[in-house]
Amino acid sequence: MKEERSAELFAKAQRFMPGGVNSPVRAFRNVGRIPRFIKKAKGARIFDEDGNEYIDYVCSWGPGILGHAFPSVVKAAQEACEDGLTFGAPTEKEVEIAEIISRLVPAMEMMRLVNSGTEAVMSAIRAARGFTKRDKIIKFKGCYHGHSDGLLVKAGSAALTTAVPDSAGVPEGCTKDTLVALYNDEESVENLFKANEGKIAAVIVEPVAANMGVVLPKDGFLKFLRRITEENGALLIFDEVITGFRLSIGGAAEFFGIKPDMITLGKIVGGGMPVGAYGGRRDIMSVVSPLGTVYQAGTLSGNPVATAVGIETLKYLDSHREIYGEIGRKTARLADAYRNAFGNSARVNQIGSLMSVFFTDKDVTDYESTQTSDTKRYARYFSFMLDRGIYLAPSQFEAMFVSAAHTDGDVERTIALATEFASVEAH
Ligand SMILES: *Cc1c(COP(=O)(O)O)cnc(C)c1O
Predict the structure, then answer these.
(1) Where are the N6-(pyridoxal phosphate)lysine residues found in this chain (predicted)?
(2) pLDDT tens-digit readout, 302-312
(3) Which CATH architecture has domain 71-319?
């Protein structure tokens, strides 16, 4: 498989951008390959600058649930462009998408549109703090909530009581109010509440963790978070940037039947355009300026082209809900076949159209167990598949995304190659 053109572009890109990319995982460093420079995409296929074709399981990290360049979505973008790219003034489309989101995700009685998941989470936390008049938040080790200062933390050494910055350039002052608990570990949350009575504004969680590879919530874990936040006057924030409109049309809140106080959205809500949203109970969102005293703004927030694309994506999903059963069935087929192929040498976590294969013989239920996986074997698996036309996440700790455009044939081809990799490795 040729890669000259990608190699050439990558060399040049590195002169102008750190690592040659605009987001680190794209640089393929974890898998030791040259990143593919993508020229175009259609349906479940992406095409690189060397003319190679791949079945794409990254789907732009989630937004592409309908497949790439979905005709009605492209048309919505084109038509919106004709009428002007941005006005910095209210539009009917913003009202329309807010009404749709609120209907599909009833916990979002009121919301704000922003331009990324990072911005959605950052703003939601500010609103939660403004509303509760408390400073501290609890997040979970291994959950990702974008790259804002206060959330780029790792657990400190002092038995999960304090967080320390997980990136250079983040002052300690920015993370001193972030507490880190363990995903699927109720006791770690209880301990933080006990040690910080009356000080915790919110607990933020990925209802299905999908940024340490896919890790499912244990039975009752989300319900426990709903109860303990309520008992302590803290807010529960579901970061549904990945799960929103993916696990079901109403996201994880609907899927698990739990109503959080606030929800953050990104990825699918923009259908491929840079859109995020945060929202929740009306009384909470009423603290946001100009109604209240929590400031948050955005020059391009609610951008008409991005909003048009989001509207068409959500409308299509809403009127074709059979998609969820279909993508869930295909992903379950992948998961079963992978379990079969890799046996006890791997663990496959799957829910709906999200899946991860971890190369470990231990069950993967939390951050610690994700770290038992053999990342070198993942890199070999990635390379084997890439060279045969399957484009996977270039990291063990990311999800595999299945879209409505993936055919049964695509799935079977993927299974055949993964099975071949497993047997080649075994010999
Ligand atoms: C991707 C992601 C974010 C950040 O969204 P960006 O649009 O990349 O800023 C936040 N939370 C979760 C759960 C995500 O998966």
Answers:
(1) 267
(2) 999 999 999 99
(3) 3-Layer(aba) Sandwich (3.40)
